[in-house]
Amino acid sequence: MSLIRITAGDFSFAARFEETAAPKTVAAFRTMLPYRESLIHVRWSGEACWIPMGDYDLGLGAENATSYPAPGHVILYPGGISETEILIAYGPCCFASKAGQLAGNHFLTITEGLDDLATLGRLTLRQGAQPITFAVE
Fold it and tell me: pTM for this one?
């Protein structure tokens, strides 16, 4: 099992790849590591933060896709109706865009630090973008 360290703002989380359920998404994301970006709060989806990726094409389709990620689930929307993005749920969430409900590929699950995830989400909502890094542990 491969572990990923996610560092966002002052917080650190361990996560595991969902290699069996989303092998193509995991493989595509691995090629991007270490991945550094800014995490912002969602507009339509509820209690989640996201990383907009614009028209970045990973060559993926739906794989282990969900519209209702649980807290600690990390999903990747490969683009189509809306832009490519990564979403991290920290509370109740229905993944959506201005075009309507979406489904993203659940490819990572946070396994350590979940108690801090909602704090990070609220901080991002109130104080704005936080730096985020995904790296192999």
Answer: 0.95
Three-state secondary structure of the chain: CCEEEEEECCEEEEEEECCCCCHHHHHHHHCCCCEEEEEEECCCCEEEEEEECCCCCCCCCCCCEECCCCCCEEEEECCCCCCCEEEEEEEEECCEECCEECCEEEEEEEEECHHHHHHHHHHHHHHCCEEEEEEEC
The first and second tokens of residue 135, run together, are 């790296």
CATH class of 3-136: mainly beta
Tens-digit pLDDT profile for residues 36-66: 999 999 998 999 999 999 999 999 999 999 9
Q: Break the chain into its structural domains and give their ranges.
A: 3-136
